[in-house]
């Protein structure tokens, strides 16, 4: 290609990219910020201790989950780095909410989107991705997703978004209405505008990286707690200091937990980690769904379990303050899994003992020393206080 022809092609692509960035910006402006809900803690014990719990409701994004923010950032990152143009096939390794949101943005820009996922992915998730215009490409094992996504990108001349590597670098953690900035702005007129804790799970690690960096950038006293489900590599890696931990088993809590430590997970911005049994995550999702009058997803249950534990600690020590966590996605996506008794039984998940813990917390504000059910699943994580409770020195 001659120099003049190459220059003309670059000019045409630049014009398309400028238009694409404006389209995404317009979509952002049309979307009101997500709500910050105050969770109704019982007056039976909060009248004696001044603590509050807030839920950042990410289910109100147009694609229904926290991953809408990540997908928007990944597309802008690819566009502004010159990796995505009007002829690009966009590819991701995801069977969940990230792929749903990415399919939305690909359709907004008129680009083909392929989600690489295990053949065992639920029909509900496949339908959600396809409803946004995406195409699903299947592999036998989840460990094959990364390499297959890279292969497809090379084969099509496309771009692999690679959420697990790029999540922490694609998000503007200093501001620009990221989730951390939004939380602190919305808390501005509350009794405790600077929370004691923000509690999040880790899937890519991007959300915890964004919030942890922002806390330090703004010099807040807030601490960041990351909650992790069974079978995930993040907690044992954090506890041991080894970045090469591999569990070889997939998480049963969709949206969070990974069998390896993903590049976007930044442990040094995390102040504490809690390992939460899967049955406890399910019990908490059911509990909060009843309180709010609408279903929330299982990763929200993991978040709530950790937030309740921290609130109980604050109450026991007589410390005032607020805790913030996320409603990551709607539980309506999981009607045939986490809200189905037959499915829970097939997975060996019995939330009844954990439900008793939650009922006692609501009644008294207290949290037992050993709160996990005796049979907590294949990885046998049984105590979210001692061996499964890691803190970094401050």
UniProtKB/TrEMBL annotation:
A cysteine desulfhydrase that generates hydrogen sulfide, H(2)S. The H(2)S produced by this enzyme stimulates respiration in M.tuberculosis, mediated primarily via cytochrome bd with a lesser contribution from cytochrome bc1/aa3. H(2)S modulates the balance between respiration and glycolysis, and also contributes to redox homeostasis. Probably eliminates toxic levels of Cys (which can induce oxidative stress). The modification N6-(pyridoxal phosphate)lysine is found at residue 67. It comes from the Bacteria. Residues 362-394 are annotated as: Disordered. It catalyses: L-cysteine + H2O = hydrogen sulfide + pyruvate + NH4(+) + H(+). The keyword Cytoplasm applies. Belongs to the cysteine synthase/cystathionine beta-synthase family. Cds1 subfamily. Gene3D superfamilies: 3.40.50.1100. InterPro entries: Cds1, Cys_Synth/Cystath_Beta-Synth, TrpB-like_PALP, TrpB-like_PALP_sf. Its EC number is 4.4.1.1. Its cofactor is pyridoxal 5'-phosphate. One of its GO terms (biological process) is L-cysteine catabolic process to pyruvate. The keyword Glycoprotein does not apply. It is found in: Cytoplasm. Its main location: cytoplasm. Keywords: Cytoplasm, Lyase, Pyridoxal phosphate. This is L-cysteine desulfhydrase Cds1. Residues 36-328 form the Tryptophan synthase beta chain-like PALP domain. GO terms for molecular function: lyase activity; pyridoxal phosphate binding. GO terms for cellular component: cytoplasm. It comes from Mycolicibacterium vanbaalenii.
